[in-house]
Amino acid sequence: MGEKANQSQKDITGFRPPEDFVRNAIVNDPDIYRRAEEDPESFWEENAGGIEWYRKWDRVLEWEPPHSKWFIGGKLNACYNCLDVNLDQHADKTAIIWEGENGDIRNYTYKELLEEVCRFANVLKGMGVKKGDIVTIYLPMIPEVVISMLACARIGAPHSVVFAAFSGDSLATRIGNANSRVLITCDGYSRRGKIIEQKNKVDDGIRSCGLIDQVIVVRHMGNEITMKDGRDIWWHEAMENSDSSCEPEVMDSEDMLFLMYTSGTTGKPKGIVHTTGGYMVTTQTTTKFVFDLKNEDIYWCTADCGWITGHSYLVYGPLSNGTTLVIYEGAPDYPDKDRYWDIIERHKVTILYTAPTAIRTFMKWGASWPQMHDISTLRLIGSVGEPINPGAWLWYHENIGMGRCPVVDTWWQTETGMIMISPLPGITTTKPGSATLPIPGIKAAVLDDKGNEVAPGQDGYLAILDPWPSMVRTVFGNEERFIETYWIKWDNKTYFAGDGAKKDEDGYFWIIGRVDDVIKVSGHRIGSAEFESILVSHPSVAEAGVVGKEDELRGEVIYSYVTLKSGIEESNELKKELTAYAEKNIGPFARPRQIIFSDDLPKTRSGKIMRRVLKAIANEKDPGDVSTLQDPAVVEMLKEKTRMLESA
Questions:
Q1: Which of 265, 263, 262 is nearest to 517 (CA)?
Q2: Radius of gyration over alpha carbons of the chain, in Å?
Q3: Cα(first)–Cα(last) distance of the chain, in Å?
Q4: Which residues of 611-634 are buried (b: 16+ CB within 10 A; e: fewer)?
Q5: Are 555 and 589 part of one and the same domain?
Q6: Domain span at residue 635?
Q7: Can you give the pLDDT at residue 624?
Q8: CA 423, CA 33: separation in Å to the nearest integer?
Q9: Is residue 500 part of a domain?
Q10: The predicted structure's pLDDT at residue 482
Q11: What is the DSSP string of 187-220?
Q12: CA distances from residue 368 to 289, 337, 359, 492 in whole angstroms, order as listed
């Protein structure tokens, strides 16, 4: 068929998937929603057949709100399902294409990856790590982070992956909470051509917690580090004589697979517990359904393994589907702003899954960068991490998806383990800015404070009404916090996601953002994410961070930090235009007190704008630890700009 026939079809309700995509999609029968809604347990049981079990379950679900158990009595191993099951058909297929920031490339076939995982599993066993021991992993995006995760899963030792850019103190907090005795790290890693001294951060951090007995260090950059006798050992030395065969531990479906720490409103991270059976079933299923994953696909999820997206949709979901993964270690603008598009062209990537913040950054840089490369191998593109505003969605669809790739805008959380609301690309008509509909088998709603469903178009709280297989089991070591955070708002059996949302007349979900990211101006409540989405819809704006500044008269006033698109000049006229634009689209109460232009905003290494830091700057308070930011220097620059505006 000609290229025109492949274009996404725009109609009055949204973008319909291309006819040839629908025809060849893994899931293209809308009846899947009816079947899953009528009998969700049977739906998940049917999809559990994609996993290899040592012993089949006795019951699908035990639900004693707010606690669930799935595939009760079932026995399996997550690592076995990611590697061993692929040997018959895919032993010599490339499992991982890894590219370092400096251009180094390492490829692993499924057979080679299994051998490396087994060697390292035996290293851990030789150090005394046994089933149930929590191992902390503090590595950048190098192959060893995946090898470590799978080796832990192979021997039944839950892993706790700590984002490599976190400070030594943040690492120590997570080690202490998990009571971990073994740490896996590296000498250093590259970020925009500079070496980050990772081992130095480790030494500073674990000095304060006093728990770690053994540290395994990957020699990655070759920078000079201190190795402590009796505690530290080089990865390559430990692996030299290790056996490449290791029998996988037989795990119960409800045995813990990993801990994943997520930020809380109290500032103390929560250790989210995910178990093995339900998690593997849902990540395998949703990876296949949402990304229409085919044997020949080259799949690139840009997330870091320090976050849940890296666990579910870079490691466990794709590998259990026998996929070829691309993993990139570095920054998207090193050595220049076309690095992502260069990677896609060279490795012939077919599926790209990235964050709205990254997409808005690409918008700011301009379409000329992707246009320098042949990215026509892409056939599906996705978004994850936060709500994507319609303008960024359309730019992504038109400039990266070439108007023909379905866009899967996904909503889910660390706590859910799996994608919960998303288009199915062979079925769903998409609307820019909407995550569309719950995945088959998921029942979601928008509720008010009393637990009643709100009318279409009304703002409310996003809720999940029924249990699902990969749901959080508890907060590690703090059951009370688990109940108070997620279940107590309504009836102890309805999950409170902490996000605001609304549904339209078609039943499509529109995620507004965290309900605790709310600015209260003279009694009006304005969601930061909603306000940012309005600003970013202006043709001159690439990114925006909106926070409240304390005000005696109005409670709070609005401070908007704005990054302009390439080629747009700052001016007082543009400030007035943006102020009027906000008032027109939200209301007179939404007039920003200040609009501060900036070449960049404080963002984590994973690309999320740190509103906490912006709020501290606006309120002239200490922003705290900024070591995890892409560029900590941005903080001082914004402080100075804010001070100058206040004194003007």
A1: 265
A2: 24
A3: 62
A4: bbbbbbbbeeeebeebebbbeeeb
A5: yes
A6: 517-647
A7: 79
A8: 12
A9: yes
A10: 96
A11: S-EEETTEEE-HHHHHHHHHHHH----EEEEE-S
A12: 32, 10, 14, 51
| CA distance linking residue 72 with residue 76, whole number of Å | 12
Dihedral class, residue 451 (left if φ above 0, else alpha if ψ from -120 to 50, else beta): left
- The number of folded domains in the chain is 2
CA atoms of 195 and 140, how far apart (whole Å): 12
Structure tokens at 357: 């913040």
Joined together, the tokens standing for residue 183 give 């740490």
Distances in Å between the Cα of 47 and the Cα atoms of 12, 250, 410, 550 are 34, 21, 20, 51
ω before 140 within 30° of 0 (cis)? no
One DSSP character per residue, 628-642 reads TBS-THHHHHHHHHH
Residue identified by tokens 């859910």 is: 416
496/532 same-domain check: no
Return the amino acid letter for 298. I
Q: DSSP readout, 271-320?
A: EEEEESHHHHHHHHHHHHHHTT--TT-EEEE---TTSHHHIIIIIIHHHT
**How far are the Cα atoms of 99, 336, 338, 403, 493 from residue 375, in angstroms, in the given order?**
18, 17, 11, 13, 46
Which CA distances in Å does 386 have to 117, 346, 433, 609, 624?
33, 29, 11, 10, 23
The amino acid at residue 9 is: Q
List of the chain residues with pLDDT < 70:
1-13, 263-267, 522-525, 553, 605-606, 628, 648
Give 126-172 as a DSSP string: HTT--TT--EEE---SSHHHHHHHHHHHHHT--EEEPPTTS-HHHHH
Position 428, amino acid = T
Give the model's pLDDT for residue 434: 96
β-strands 555-564, 541-551 pairing: antiparallel
Instruction: Indicate which CATH number applies to the domain containing 499.
Output: 2.30.38.10
Ramachandran angles phi, psi of 120, nearest 5°: -70, -35
Give the single-character DSSP code of 397: I
From the number of C-beta atoms within 10 Å of its C-beta (0-12, 13-18, 19+), residue 577 rates as middle
Contacts of 228 (CB under 8 A, 6+ apart): 203, 215
Q: What is the dihedral of CA 190, 631, 174, 279, to 10 degrees?
A: -80
* 571 contacts 539 by C-beta, under 8 angstroms: no
Q: Which residues contact 134 (CB under 8 A, 6 or more apart)?
A: 157, 158, 159, 160, 178, 179, 180, 259
CA distance 314 to 420: 17
> What's the pLDDT score for residue 12?
53
Which two tokens mark 466?
Answer: 């029924």
pLDDT of 264 reads 54
Name residue, tokens 């220097």.
Answer: 633
**Three-state DSSP state, 344:** helix
Residue 633 inside a domain? The answer is yes
Q: What is the CATH number of the domain that holds 630?
A: 3.30.300.30
Q: Which residues contact 186 (CB under 8 A, 6 or more apart)?
A: 139, 140, 142, 144, 198, 199, 217, 218, 219, 220, 221
Q: Which one-letter DSSP state was computed for residue 512?
A: E
Strands 256-262 and 270-275: antiparallel
Sequence-separated (6 or more) residues with CB below 8 Å from residue 444: 420, 421, 438, 462, 463, 464, 465, 509
CA 145 vs CA 161, 211, 368: distances in Å: 8, 21, 34
Rounded Cα–Cα distance for residues 429 and 434 (Å):
11
| 471 domain-assigned | yes
Q: Please report whether residue 366 resides in a domain.
A: no
Tell how strand 380-383 and strand 351-354 pair up. parallel
Phi, psi of 67 (to 5 degrees): -105, 135
